[in-house]
Amino acid sequence: xxxxxxxxxxxxxxxxxxxxxxxxxxxxxxxxxxxxxxxxxxxxxxxxxxxxxxxxxxxxxxxxxxxxxxxxxxxxxxxxxxxxxxxxxxxxxxxxxxxxxxxxxxxxxxxxxxxxxxxxxxxxxxxxxxxxxxxxxxxxxxxxxxxxxxxxxxxxxxxxxxxxxxxxxxxxxxxxxxxxxxxxxxxxxxxxxx
Length: 194
Prior knowledge:
42% of the residues lie in helices and 19% in strands. The chain is of the alpha/beta class. The chain has one domain (4-192): Rossmann fold (3-Layer(aba) Sandwich). GO terms for molecular function: FMN binding; oxidoreductase activity.
């Protein structure tokens, strides 16, 4: 059975580097033998996480759709930008809303349960967004996922992509291959243990 991996970027900005990183991850995962679903968070707009709003109106429909998507996949790869050395608000808000889900109608739904997660980042600076991944790693551990050790941080992202969307630097591409292979391996192992 092919591991099912969900890939998305933590930014909705047109031309976002994280979106380009997600595209490279998508192609790499497919080449390595995964079944991949690629989504954009722009298709799942959410209000700011607010427990009063949740109490009044329940979990938003788009959060439920994302929760079902997370649940239907064995692994998740997140390509995140770095905002002030941390997690962008769009991504944090998405993670928080999905973490509130415990049921889907009359059946239990735990979107993060048993999920293996890979993290990638990008920025125009020398750290490639890696500082933000410390925070993202912590948040994803807290919601109950298993985060693989390998990560890919794309430095000088304004120069990192060729016209066809691939990385211009072989070292960065090898880093992405290691991340994707590790995600596939860890996901296969996690599925075999269920």
